[in-house]
Amino acid sequence: MTQGADRSPGRRTVIGAAVLGTAALGVGGATAAPAEADERHGGHGSSYRDLPQPTVIAHRGASGYRPEHTIGSYQLALDMGAHVIEQDLVPTKDGHLVCRHENDITGTTDVAAHPEFASRRTTKSVDGVSLTGWFTEDFTLADLKTLRAKERIPGNRQENTLYDGRWAVPTFEEVLRWAEKEGRRRGRPVWLHVETKHPTYFRGLGLGLEEPLAKLLRRYGRDRQGSPVFLQSFEPTSIQRLAKLVSSPRVVLLSGASTRPWDFVQAGDPRTVADLVKPAGLKWIASFAQGIGPTLDLIIPKDASGKLGTPTTLVRDAHAQDLILHPYTMRNENTFLPADFRRGTDPNAYGDAFGAFKVYFETGIDGIFTDNADTGLLAASDFRG
Length: 385
Ligand code: G3P
Ligand code: CA
What we know:
With 385 residues, this protein is α/β, with parallel strands linked by helices. Helices cover 32% and strands 13% of the residues. The protein has one domain (15-384): TIM Barrel. It contains 15 helices and 11 strands. Helix 3 (71-80) links the parallel strand 1 and strand 2. Helix 14 (353-361) crosses helix 15. The relative contact order is 0.15. Residues 59, 88, 101, 195, 232, 253, 293, 328-329, 369 line the site of SN-glycerol-3-phosphate. Residues 54-380 form the GP-PDE domain.
């Protein structure tokens, strides 16, 4: 399975430092701010090149154990020792950035139990998909704060429903303050991995995500190339826009090979993800980003029976462009694992997650998004030996 990718942090750190000083961060022409500003916010002038390898990224917090995108989920992930904590961002009607995977909050909040919001249930097309429910862009932050978060997949994670109603929907600013406080308490920065969700769709509503995100990153000292944050999006133009606003490290997310980013669809750009993972596509991405976040299937495709097949050359090809790889998403439950790592017949029971992590780590990836940061950390530790 091993691709022979160079996992030497030292080698890539040297190359990375050279590149970061020139082209890779040069799209916006932004310059690094004084180191003392970073220190004020607990940044310590850190570099993503110095994160533990493989880096364990807590996907939506510790979402295997708590309702996702809540302070409780982020706190548990941090307490487990996750290297980086992920946020997905969508806007409210009054332009505040809040942490939700979907702008449709039907499945992750108790909005349906609020009769005062019943009339706001509606059907709309988001990135070409028809959805019926309640949407963050139809709620002010004050409205949204009256709701409580709940488990998104209770059928798979019944135990997590114990925590339904315990936390509100956090704003990104609240998360930045939490990260700052936890960073001070721990004496080291709390790394975040922040995704802009549906950026073209929201810009069309007059709710552009990148400008308020950049403003918050500047306010909390996370706008520099050494800041403890990654910015990510499935839409390359969102990453390009961010590159003009801040110097924080950036990652282009890549979905299935046959898909097209929604901004490409809107702009009539015919390229698919299959084009972007070719050397020319990766070279283009490397002109404005420092990494890619591919679906795990782009690293190791599955065969017709759902078992892992032969790794692609993506790790080698991306590293050749000095791009790091943060693929998504590893989960412990059988239903989410490749068929060859499932154990028993209960889809919600845990399978051989350690075995699957090991095979993915052997490809030379730099990090991985996982709902189960504790499992990922043990697997990463085993892998480092
Ligand atoms: O952002 C990495 C991964 O989270 C992408 O998938 O749909 O879970 O945001 P999604
Ligand atoms: Ca995400």
